[in-house]
Every structure is written in C-alpha cells, then in structure tokens.
Write a structure and sequence with these properties.
three-stranded antiparallel sheet; single chain; Tetrahydropterin Synthase, Chain A; alpha+beta; 3 domains; rod-shaped
Length: about 290
C-alpha cells in the first residue's frame, strides 16, 4: 500500500468521523448548550436536527420537562412547639440552562441542592404556623408560601419551582400517645363542663317553673275565692230578696228541703217531741 493510499484512507476515516460529529438531534423534551473550548457558544431549545463544528464544539443535553425532587421525611417543630413528621416533594423546570449548567452542571447535583433548600423552606414556614392550620383548607396557602420561598432561592440556579406538595404529615411515634392522652383529657374536661352547665341550667329552669307554678296556683286560688265570695254574696242577696217577698213560703220550702235531706229511707230515727219546731208542718200549714 502506497503512502498516498494510506493518506486517503486516514482522511476518509477522519472525514466520516467529522461528518458524524457535525450534527446532533434535540428532542422536544430537551434543550442543548453548545460549547467551544469550554466556552458557551449558544443555547438550542428548538427540537430537531442541528449542526455544529466538528472536533472543536461539544453539546450538553439538558432536560426541558418538569422534574421532581423529594425531600426526605423530617421532624419539624411547629409554632406551638409540637413536633411533626413531614414528607414533601417539589416539581421544577430548568428555565435558564446556561446558569443551571454553571451552578449545578448535573441533574443529580440539582436534586441534592433543591432537596436541601426544600427542607430549609419547610422548616422556615412550618415553624410559624400551628397544626390546625396545616390540617385545614389553609394548607394550600402554606404550600404556596413554601414554593414561593423555594423559588426565590432556586432562581440562582436557573430553576423555576412550579409547586410544592406535602405528601404526608404525622405526629412522631414518641409523641402520638401523649397527644392522644392530652386530647382525651381535654375532651373529658369539656364533657364534664358541659354536663355541669346543663345540670345548672336544669335546676334553674326547674326553680323558675316551680315559682311560676306557685304564682299561677296562688292567683287561681285568689281568683276562685273572689268568685266564690261574689257567688255567696249574690246567693245571700237572692235569698234575702226571696225571703222578703214571702217569708212564710220560704220557711216552708226550707223545711221541705230539711225533711228530704233528713228523712231518707235508711231507717233514720229521730227522738223528738211531736210538737217540736222541726215537725211543725206535719201538723198542717200554720196560718
């Protein structure tokens, strides 16, 4: 083989390598940074086939999709000095690939840094709220506050935080029993207080009812005595009028009533003189 042939073979081999190294493909879920002698030349964020200078330019592919980072479960002290086991995660996107590459370079390093910052933000925010807030509808606002604080720090790495979610919140095992016992004691105290209040109100209402009943009975008795007195007065008035009109007939009528009531067919026996005042009408009507 002549030197010319060797040269042509080597040149053809290098040419093929150069052609293969002169283009690259960027997918829709990716973006690329072009380097030349370790200096950033340009950023490619459009999907498709792209070209670069072979041998002197390199390509670094960076994710464009939404990524996730998990924060390890940690114990956080809330505002009321209650420890809480919190497990959370964040979703983020690389919006500045140049800054991202300069500060973290790899996705693994980015996850580690974001995980640390997420834990720090959760401690900072959750340390100012109470457990009831975290378990209510205000939970969304708490997560938004954590995401906002985390996003301020992540901007320095070319990263945008999309959202933060708290996956699980539990009381530590060592405090669950004590918290349950305290809550049970508080509920027992509340029940005793409600029961005592109810009994006091029952006694008060019963006393009020008895007082009102006494007043009503007294008023009714007074009214009945008044009506009875008026009736007796009217009766005496009627009797006086009747007596004044015919005293003899009235005396006869009263005697007949006395006979009817006193001489009932029950073997009643009277030991009286026949000419006594009681039997005067048995001897005829006096003239």
């Amino acid at each position: 083989m002549t030197p010319r042939q060797i040269f042509l073979i080597v040149f053809g081999f290098l040419l093929l390598i150069g052609i293969g190294d002169s283009y690259f493909v960027v997918r829709q879920t990716e973006q690329a940074i072009i380097f030349q002698f370790r200096d950033i030349v340009r950023v490619v964020d459009r999907a498709g086939l792209h070209f670069k200078m072979p041998y002197v330019q390199d390509v670094e592919i960076i994710e464009k999709r939404v990524l996730a980072v998990d924060a390890p479960s940690q114990e956080i002290m809330l505002a009321e000095q209650k420890p809480l086991e919190v497990d959370a995660f964040a979703r983020y996107r690389i919006v500045n690939p140049v800054l991202y590459f300069q500060r973290v370079r790899s996705e693994r390093t980015a996850r580690d840094r974001l995980s640390t910052m997420l834990n720090s933000s959760m401690r900072s925010v959750l340390g100012t709220i109470k457990l009831a807030t975290l378990l209510s509808t205000d939970r969304v606002g708490v997560m938004d506050k954590i995401a906002s604080q985390l996003n301020q720090e992540a901007k320095d790495f070319g990263i945008e935080i999309i959202d933060v979610r708290i996956r699980r919140t539990d009381l530590p095992d060592k405090t669950s029993g004590a918290v349950f016992a305290r809550m049970r004691s508080e509920r027992i105290q509340d029940a005793a207080q409600i029961r005592a209040t109810g009994q006091q109100e029952a006694v008060q209402k019963k006393a009020d009812a008895d007082r009102q009943a006494t007043i009503i009975v007294a008023e009714a008795l007074g009214e009945s005595e008044k009506i009875k007195g008026e009736g007796d007065s009217e009766s005496l008035k009627i009797i006086a009028e009747a007596t004044s009109k015919d005293p003899q007939f009235f005396s006869f009528w009263r005697s007949m009533l006395a006979y009817r009531e006193g001489l009932k067919p029950e073997n009643t026996t009277y030991i009286l003189k026949p000419d006594s005042e009681f039997f005067r009408y048995f001897q005829g009507i006096p003239k």
